[in-house]
Specification:
The protein has 489 residues and is mostly helical. The chain has helices spanning 6-21, 27-40, 47-66, 70-106, 125-140, 150-158, 174-177, 186-218, 226-257, 275-279, 284-295, 305-323, 327-345, 347-357, 363-386, 390-399, 412-420, 424-446, 458-475. Helix 1 (6-21) packs antiparallel against helix 2 and helix 8 packs across helix 18 (424-446).
């Protein structure tokens, strides 16, 4: 069951109505049952994996809290190893055996192939594993009391709005709210529905439309030259943002309808002036997870410089590997680690160049250039994230600057559309959706945390959201819905 489907809409309405009709003591069983049903709609048997993770970390948290000294660390280690072992087996077994097999055959140590188990990756495994791990780690550091209510803890791991693709919550936020007696508030529910509508718009009107262009090029990169490759890479940056932030908006909106606030996962990342800022705005729940539980424990930036660079690279390589069991994701992580290290090393040189060019005297232009350069770097790295293989990725990089004369033809739509496998109407709809999203987000960015649309007069808000919902209903596909990109992680 995915968000952009008719079954989910029916499921969601039933759950919300039942949630507010039932007394408080029956709400957690309702949500837990609904979450189990939601997850089992994918592959029922994999609920057992979640049950194992929940059981290990529930008792692990209690034993950690009760223990002292080295015993606490042993219980934490047992919890971490149990979670990581499950993740490694289901997500990385095929990747590891394939590479070990290639290495051993290369040096003549292996005559027979290693066994293939045909494991199917449980949906959302990386997300709920990290969320469960954050609980035991927080208990270990004394920042979270061990949860004694097994049902509430199970719901913390399985809460259906963010179960499959986040945001990766911390117990201090979500676990606390699951104990609260929440009263029905029409304004809160309406706010959640508006956020969900915005998420559906991003997914169905923008992400699914530009996906047609991206897939056409990236499924056969050798058939295309620079213009199509550049445009497809640009559109993938739009696709993955609208797809993932669209999912997050739906998740946050669904939780808000239940009176629960989830953490913000995106903050206009493509307006970042450097790669470090990008990671403070993109997939915030994951970047802060790696910061708090990997980067800082390794010493962060409070070490000698070479170790600082090492810490950054290890953190981003692990982040890339978290996304998928493929060298393309590892290279993507390495690129971001390199961008950050290079920014540190070249800081003085870049500042001197800016002064020499006089950019400090025109700060707005300087900022625009920084944002543009950051987007180009991030977009370049997306090539490796999206490519089907390392070979395809390097083929795309090698052909990026071939045949660029086509960009300057008289009729851009006529030139681009066949290259991207879409017609004029399809491309025009996608571009219009992007324009609407960027306009609203840009205005909202200038106003800081305030929601621009919410500040409009009532008739303007109704007109905007009516148009949004109508466009989603008319142009969206609910009978043959597409998966969200991050479901595979």
């Amino acid at each position: 069951m995915i968000f952009n489907s008719i079954p989910f809409l029916i499921f969601f309405v039933v759950v919300v109505v039942a949630y507010y009709v039932l007394p408080h003591r029956w709400r957690w069983p309702l949500l837990l049952t609904a979450s189990c049903y939601f997850y089992m709609a994918f592959v029922p048997a994999y609920i057992l994996i979640l049950a194992f993770t929940i059981g290990v970390d529930y008792f692990g948290g209690i034993f950690i809290e009760r223990s002292k000294g080295a015993a606490r660390k042993r219980w934490l280690t047992a919890s971490v190893l149990s979670n990581v072992s499950v993740l490694a087996f289901f997500k990385y077994y095929a990747f590891l055996t394939e590479n070990i097999e290639a290495l051993m055959q290369g040096i003549g140590w292996l005559d027979h192939p290693l066994p293939e188990l045909g494991i199917i990756l449980p949906i959302g495994l990386s997300f709920h594993t990290f969320q469960s791990l954050s609980y035991t780690i927080e208990v270990y550091y004394g920042r979270q009391k061990a949860e004694r209510h097994f049902g509430i803890f199970s719901l913390y791991v399985m809460f259906f709005p963010q179960l499959v693709a986040g945001p990766i919550e911390r117990p201090g936020n979500l676990l606390r709210q699951l104990h609260l007696k929440i009263q029905f508030n029409a304004a809160t529910v309406a706010s959640g529905l508006r956020l969900m509508a915005w998420g559906f718009f991003k997914k169905l009107i923008i992400a699914d439309r530009v996906a047609v262009m991206v897939d056409h090029v990236y499924n056969a990169p050798g058939d295309h030259e620079g213009p199509a490759l550049i445009l497809a890479t640009f559109f993938f940056a739009i696709q993955i943002y609208c797809d993932f932030s669209g999912y997050t908006d739906i998740a946050l909106g669904a939780a808000r309808c239940l009176g629960i606030s989830l953490m913000r996962n995106f903050r206009t990342p493509y307006y970042s002036a450097n790669v470090s800022e990008f990671w403070s705005r993109w997939h915030i729940s994951l970047s802060t997870w790696f910061r708090d539980y990997v980067y800082i424990p390794m010493g962060g930036n409070r070490v000698v410089k070479w170790r600082w660079y090492f810490n950054l690279m290890v953190t981003f390589v692990l982040s890339g590997f978290w996304h998928g069991a493929a060298w393309t994701y590892i290279i993507w992580g390495m690129l971001h680690g390199f961008f950050l290290i290079f920014a540190i090393v070249s800081k003085d040189v870049r500042s001197g160049l800016g002064r020499w060019l006089g950019l400090e005297k025109v700060p707005r232009l300087n900022h625009v250039l920084q944002v543009l350069i950051t987007f180009i770097l991030v977009d370049f790295a997306w090539i490796f994230f999206r490519a089907s293989s390392v070979h395809d990725a390097f083929q795309i990089v090698g052909n990026l600057f071939t045949g660029l004369g086509g960009f300057f033809t008289r009729d851009a739509f006529t030139f681009w559309s066949p290259l991207l496998g879409v017609g004029r109407k399809e491309m025009a709809l996608a571009l219009l959706g992007i324009a609407v999203m960027e306009l609203v987000q840009r205005i909202d960015l200038r106003r800081g945390a305030t929601q621009w649309i919410s500040a409009r007069p009532p008739w303007q808000r109704w007109a905007f959201y009516t148009g949004l919902v109508c466009s989603v209903i008319y142009f969206g596909s609910y009978y043959n819905p597409t998966q969200f990109i991050y479901f595979q992680f």
